[in-house]
Amino acid sequence: MAPPTGSSPRRAALRDRLRHPLRHLPAWHGGPDATFAARLLLTTAATAVVSVPFAVALVLVESGWQPLLRLDRATAERLHATALEHPGLVRVLDVLTGVVWDPVTLRLLVALLVVRLAVRGAWRPAAWAAVTAAGSALVGYLAKIAVERARPHLPEPVAHAPGFSFPSGHAMTALTSSAVLLLVLLPLVPRAWRPLPWALAVLTVVGVGYTRVALGVHWVSDVVGGWLLGLVTVTATTLVFEAWRADTGRPRAAVTDGLEPELTGPDPESAPPAGAPAPPAPRTGRR
């Protein structure tokens, strides 16, 4: 006798689904879903990894870890004694931190860069630079409010600064602004000259950190916290930008080639042919 028709096939299919649920999950072996999932996972993992040092620094500061506090105090007192003995050095440091490397100066440079990129039609790097700079300022401000760490109180202070201490806004702005300027402008620099902007960026970041501690307005851990939080911000926005590049068919750019190597071309927003290499770096006049 033939098996009854009707709901038997549906019941069999239902039993099979209940017995083997994983067999009927969507297969993401390729295509846009798999690509998006991989990018999301890698971006989250990379951001989490670079966030760990800042999280450790935050925990040590909030818990009042004595070895860190002793390091902060000893360094502040040693540099403060040097500042009291050399008033000329204090004036130089004050000009560097209050004019040359002031956050307003660095953010103004980034703003000018954003305008220049927008005029050229390079909307992607312009948006990245603007979001990175604005995000850094907002994240740093919120972190200061959350931690509420007092600034150093030293005898005969040589400088004063308002607000809370951790993380250092000057140090964070120096790192994020230097990273933005470096990564955007690097493709326009001849390859033989590229160590120079790298050295200038490192000098800016380290110099700002030194001036803040030497003038007695920040602890060492404040400066390190600002650097680490700035690194987190730049890493997160850069990973998003790299995913954006991939969606437009552009190859992954090496850090040594800058954020968008196509800036050397006449139309930085034009989509490259499939499999096309990145444009060459500018050459020097030497043959």
Q: What portion of the residues fall into strands of 2 or more residues?
A: under 5%
Shape: flat
Q: Can you write the helix and strand succession as a string?
A: HHHHHHHHH
The share of residues in helices is 55-70%
By secondary-structure content and strand pairing, the structural class works out as: mainly alpha
The residue ranges in which pLDDT falls below 50 over 5 or more consecutive positions are 24-29
Distance between the termini: 92 Å
What does this structure look like?
GO terms for molecular function: undecaprenyl-diphosphatase activity. It is an enzyme of class 3 (hydrolase). Keywords: Hydrolase, Membrane, Transmembrane, Transmembrane helix. This protein has 287 residues and is mainly alpha-helical. The protein has one domain. The chain is 65% helix and 0% strand. It has nine helices and no strands. The protein has helices at 8-19, 31-63, 66-85, 87-100, 103-120, 123-147, 169-185, 195-214, 220-247. Helix 2 (31-63) packs antiparallel against helix 9 (220-247), helix 5 runs parallel beside helix 7 (169-185) and helix 7 (169-185) runs antiparallel to helix 8. The longest helix has 33 residues, at 31-63. The chain is flat and about 90 Å long. The N and C termini lie far apart (92 Å).
Write the layout of secondary structure elements.
Layout (H helix, E strand, L loop, with lengths): L7 H12 L11 H33 L2 H20 L1 H14 L2 H18 L2 H25 L21 H17 L9 H20 L5 H28 L40
Helix pairs in contact: 2-9, 4-8, 5-6, 5-7, 6-7, 6-9, 7-8, 7-9, 8-9
